[in-house]
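Reviewers of the previous submission asked for a worked example of the structure-prediction workflow described in the proposal, so we include one complete record here. The input consisted solely of the amino acid sequence. No template or homolog information was supplied to the procedure at any stage.
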Amino acid sequence: MSTLTELSLADARDGLRAKKFSARELAEAHIAAVTRIKPLNAFITETPDAALEGAAEADRRLAKGEARAMEGLPIAIKDLFCTEGVLTTAGSHILDGFKPPYESTVTANLWKAGAVMLGKTNMDEFAMGSSNMTSYHGPVESPWRRRGDNRPLVPGGSSGGSAAAVAARAALGATGTDTGGSIRQPAAFSGIVGMKPTYGRCSRWGIVAFASSLDQAGPMTRTVRDAAIMLGAMAGHDPKDSTSVDRPVPDYEKALTGNVRGLKIGIPKEYRVDGMNPEIDRLWEQGIAWLKAAGVETVAISLPHTKYALPAYYIVAPAEASSNLARYDGVRYGLRVPGGTLDEMYEKTRAAGFGKEVRRRVMIGTYVLSAGYYDAYYNKARQIRTLIARDFAEAYRKCDVILTPTSPNTAFAVGEKMDDPIAMYLNDVFTVPGNLAGLPGISVPAGLGGDGLPLGLQVLGRAFDEETVLRVAEVLERAADFKHKP
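From that input alone, the workflow returned the following structure tokens.
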């Protein structure tokens, strides 16, 4: 049974259709794997009964030859997605006991495609963090260890539980959300594939909001083909989400032709940051060489406002968070700490319910939106964001996709950067610009660092051109031939 957990999502799909094993056997193997990885703390809520029920339905449909795109495939769901009748906490104490009476559009799409839920994965509280250390439910540990060092490592964040579950072979795939790199950075740290689609490609309805103009759902898988299959099931227009774009969802799997000859790959000079780990730079050069060998032309490009991306992001995101998180007040659902007055109940509930990082960002966001500071900070950050989007638009006149590293370093030890929020924020230096511009991006595992930990390369594309991003990513994946396991 353990061999079933080693299958890719695509191989498991094909195996089910060829009747090499049943959906129940596949579900049971993954339920056992979820139990096995409990020490990693990757799951907040396990749903084995729902998995077996879904598998039974899948076996009935498979027997009739009525298999859907993801029929019988066991996946994990980040605890930011509302799941009807199943505890949804967003990694926060303030949502204790919250069982939504509705289903998020993305998860509803996955269930319509036949996917099976294994449980809800642990995450940084309200998706605020780059390490999965800020969760009320405790930190997630990566299944990886440094060479010669057994200290527990972070899986990256905020989608760290999803990344750990997929890397540890406890789920064929998982959903994540990416606000400033929260799919791509944990994918790089954990040696898996993580894709952030174009803003508006996947509905945000039913996803607990962090920063509404940045949040985007995406797949976390072990291969690029798996990401293409899963994204096809997740994406689609949703009239309930005003930011959802009404355009057809292509067959992403068909886009994986393996042919990238004649494409132009942009290499931005601004991504060679001071003090960058030489291993990261060498991997980037290796990625360029792999693509050149596949017939791609490289083009030097400039993204001059990149240096302002991180400070702009850490004004825009907290500002939107302070507004979004105002709804958690102890009145309608979740935690309530009684007080003598209504105001006192609000204060006590929010003080007890929100963790340190969430409180920090809410206070920053409230400050930059306050009278006298709105123009100096928030409006200025919005202007910078427009310039960053313009930089990308200009670059895409010269190239089809852009190749960069995903993260400036490999995974760090649990607790290593917790006392320095600025060092933690710098983990997103290569991923944040893509969110500010709303562009699709993917991280592909491309090698190991000297410490024996995974390193990722990032491909960024034009808006709604996920097909080219996936096609280039698969060519990189084949060249890298990353077979390493935790």
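The first strand starts at residue 43 and ends at 46. We consider this example representative of the routine output the project will generate in years two and three.
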